[in-house]
């Protein structure tokens, strides 16, 4: 691969509209862009989602593109009408059924694969210990690290058994914050012993059992690194996650346009620092100018020997190994199959079972 193509593989970007932008198509075609992230703004129906995925993949001549989405269920759901939209983590945990958690992940994965989406930026592995957390809350399975570990791994298995790459988030834990990293830089003041006992337990458990990818948190952990948030911290990404916890999969940044990062660094410097820290995939979800500036900044950092090409090769190998495991053989999404799988009767029945269970639990609480 050329330097441009190696850098391209290390970026995942978003775009506006229901058809691919000219910029994202050019990045896939000319720079071998590693991945695309889809949001509700891109999706209109199951059939349109399948056509969109096919249009993106049609520009990649060799290795399929990662097509990702944040489909956690509950309040973080990007899919349009017609898909099976399941509850989020806390509501699923309340049902006390790991079997249902697996079946929900399995059903979600089958619907995602039917429309060409091959990566789900889920599950949330944060332990929800802060009662006023403005961003995690009921997205998490709960406040018990053992429960989060168990149900997190169950959900990961449901995704990955059905060839959808799972992504545990937000490392090393966003559950004990009183601030939203979309708006400011949160801080977790817990010491390393407590972090190991609570926040890190679900990540370690899932790492040891085959989790393919992890997303970093834009959160400052002074006990781990007093200067940099996790996404930009070599102590956390390389030292803790890679060397101490033994993670060999793909590390993805959270969106670098979030205020926790963008208030301190431009997109280029943030991307360079994330790669220096040990990230493999740099996520920039919205602004095309920032996406292009970031890829150019990484290229300049390599030319100036701030980042070595050998460092890019380390990430490239991890990305390609993950793609080879989960993506081939690539086949375009089949619109006839979409109709058979998305929103099918079996998935509707599972939804109804969960609804009846949660309604019964709610009734018990009010009596």
Quick recap:
The protein has 367 residues and is of the alpha/beta class. It has helices spanning 3-9, 22-31, 46-57, 89-94, 98-114, 145-160, 192-197, 201-207, 234-244, 259-262, 267-277, 288-303, 309-326, 335-341, 345-366; strands at 11-13, 35-38, 66-69, 119-120, 165-171, 213-216, 250-252, 282-284. Helix 6 (145-160) links the parallel strand 4 and strand 5.
Helix- and strand-based class? alpha/beta
- Termini Cα gap: 65 Å
Low-confidence stretches: none
The helix content is: 40-55%
**Proportion of beta-strand residues:** 5-15%
Instruction: Give a count of the beta strands, DSSP E runs of length 2 or more.
Output: 8
Calculate Rg over CA atoms: 20 Å
The biggest beta sheet is recorded as: 8 strands, parallel
Strands ordered across the widest β-sheet: 7-6-5-4-3-2-1-8
Overall pLDDT level: 96
Describe the global form: globular
Q: Tally the helices.
A: 15
String of helices and strands? HEHEHEHHEHEHHEHEHHEHHHH
Which keywords apply here?
15 helices, about 375 residues, about 45% helix, 8 strands, alpha/beta, about 10% strand
Describe what you observe in this structure.
The protein has 367 residues and is α/β, with parallel strands linked by helices. The protein is built from 15 helices and 8 strands. The chain has an 8-stranded parallel β-sheet. Helix 1 crosses helix 13 (309-326) and helix 5 (98-114) runs antiparallel to helix 15 (345-366). The chain is globular and about 65 Å long. The mean pLDDT is 96.
């Amino acid at each position: 691969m050329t330097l441009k193509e190696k850098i391209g593989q290390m970026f995942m970007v978003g775009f506006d509209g229901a058809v691919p932008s000219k910029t994202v198509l050019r990045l896939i075609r000319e720079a071998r862009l590693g991945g695309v992230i889809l949001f509700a703004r891109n999706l209109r129906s199951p059939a349109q989602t399948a056509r969109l995925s096919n249009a993106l993949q049609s520009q990649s001549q060799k290795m399929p593109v990662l097509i990702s989405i944040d489909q956690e269920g509950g309040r973080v759901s990007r899919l349009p009408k017609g898909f099976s939209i399941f509850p989020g983590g806390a509501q699923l945990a309340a049902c006390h059924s790991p079997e249902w958690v697996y079946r929900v992940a399995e059903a979600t994965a089958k619907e995602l694969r039917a429309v060409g989406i091959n990566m789900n930026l889920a599950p949330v592995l944060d332990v929800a210990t802060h009662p006023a957390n403005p961003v995690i809350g009921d997205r998490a399975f709960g406040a018990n690290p053992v429960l989060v570990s168990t149900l997190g791994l169950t959900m990961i298995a449901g995704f990955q058994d059905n060839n959808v790459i799972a992504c545990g988030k937000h490392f090393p834990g966003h559950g004990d914050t009183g601030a939203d990293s979309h708006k400011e830089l949160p801080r977790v003041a817990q010491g390393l012993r407590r972090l190991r006992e609570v926040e890190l337990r679900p990540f370690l458990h899932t790492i040891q059992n085959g989790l393919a990818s992890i997303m970093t948190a834009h959160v400052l952990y002074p006990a781990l690194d007093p200067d940099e948030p996790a996404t930009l911290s070599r102590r956390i990404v390389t030292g803790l996650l890679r060397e101490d916890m033994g993670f060999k999969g793909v590390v993805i940044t959270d969106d670098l346009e979030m205020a926790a990062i963008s208030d301190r660094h431009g997109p280029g410097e943030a991307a360079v620092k994330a790669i220096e820290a040990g990230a493999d995939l740099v996520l920039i979800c919205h602004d095309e100018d920032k996406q292009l500036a970031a890829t150019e900044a990484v290229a300049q950092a390599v030319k100036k020997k701030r980042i070595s090409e050998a460092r890019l090769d380390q990430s490239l190998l991890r990305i390609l190994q993950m793609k080879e495991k989960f993506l081939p053989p690539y086949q375009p999404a089949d619109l006839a199959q979409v109709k058979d799988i998305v929103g099918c009767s079996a998935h509707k029945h599972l939804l109804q079972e969960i609804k009846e269970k949660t309604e019964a639990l709610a009734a018990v609480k009010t009596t």
